[in-house]
Every structure is written in C-alpha cells, then in structure tokens.
C-alpha cells in the first residue's frame, strides 16, 4: 500500500515526508490540474527529502493533445528531470479522438531512461478506459496509471475504479486512485475499491484549500489508514 501526496513547494515536500507520505508528486499549478514545475524547485525538493519524487511533465493546462513544439518541450524537460535525479515522471498525451497518443508515449519513453513513468489523469478523458489501460500495460516503463475513474472525484467512481483495479492486476500495472479523497473517506474507499495506491492533494491541505500548505497531521492520519489496510 502506498500513499502519494501532491507537493507544490519545498515546504510541502518536507511536510508530506514528515507526515508519512510514501511518495511525492511534484507539480506547479495545482488548480489547473498540475503543470511542470521549475527545475530550481525540482532540485531543491530532491535535496530536501529522501522519499521518491515523481515530477509532473505537462507543458500547459490547455489540453492533453500536444503539437510538435509541446512535445519538444516535454522531451527537454524529461531529460533534465532525469539528470536532476528524480525517481519518476507523471505524463500523458491523447489524440484528438480521445485515445492514448501512442506515438507521443513512445517518444517520452525513449528519453525517460530508468525513470518510473505514471500516466496521469489524461487517462480519465479517454473514450475507452479499459482499452487505454490494456495499451499502457504493454509498456513496462509505465508502472502506474493515475485515475479518478473518469469522474471529477474518485469517490463518485468506486465501481469503475474497482473494475479498473481488477484489470490492472491482471495486466501487472498499478492503479493509483486519486482526486477528491479525504482522510474521512479514505478507509471506506480503500475497502470498497481494493486499490493498493492512493493519491491525495487538497484532502491533506490546511482547510482543504488547494492553495494552503500541507497539513502533516492529515498526512499522518491518511498514512495510518493506508498502513492499516496494508496489514489487513
């Protein structure tokens, strides 16, 4: 069982680690769903914490369909993120037909080296999530898929997430469930879906406000719930 927490600053990263987070997703633009953070921020966060840091690679929040300039920007960012020593990247791309952009994915994987790759919530906009999951599972570098089951909140998609998790286990890829999770809802969500990894952002921030800092007590409570479910 793993708890991943979104960080947008060095302070966030330190608080997430202090609270017991297993992994950090480092982003900027939290209200836009996350975009690539600055290289300076990545470097400082990697210096500040010892838990794995996965970095968002998203050149803008306009769309998940990328032109050649967008792709070149992403590839340059990935090379630098790899050189800085991050554990992984969080990335995704779609075609105009709302399918996984396999050409873009191959280009990303070609420059990713040993980075662990998470396909982000672009997955939730695919026209067929089962087909998309099966496609992504064919690429060993893609270790996990972040999803809310196609809904704004994962809490609204418990049945779909349970189905996706069963398929992911058959395909040997990890489902990372997130969006809308709170400390109060986490235990029942884990029980009802069976997922092994969860992703939390606003739900572990002060006053449940995206622009507030992380609350280490909320992270600690969430981590205890995750650990408790792992022991069951």
UniProtKB/TrEMBL annotation:
<dbReference type="InterPro" id="IPR036822">
    <property type="entry name" value="CutC-like_dom_sf"/>
</dbReference>
<protein>
    <recommendedName>
        <fullName>PF03932 family protein CutC</fullName>
    </recommendedName>
</protein>
<dbReference type="GO" id="GO:0005507">
    <property type="term" value="F:copper ion binding"/>
</dbReference>
<dbReference type="InterPro" id="IPR005627">
    <property type="entry name" value="CutC-like"/>
</dbReference>
<keyword id="KW-0963">Cytoplasm</keyword>
<comment type="similarity">
    <text>Belongs to the CutC family.</text>
</comment>
<dbReference type="Pfam" id="PF03932">
    <property type="entry name" value="CutC"/>
</dbReference>
<dbReference type="GO" id="GO:0005737">
    <property type="term" value="C:cytoplasm"/>
</dbReference>
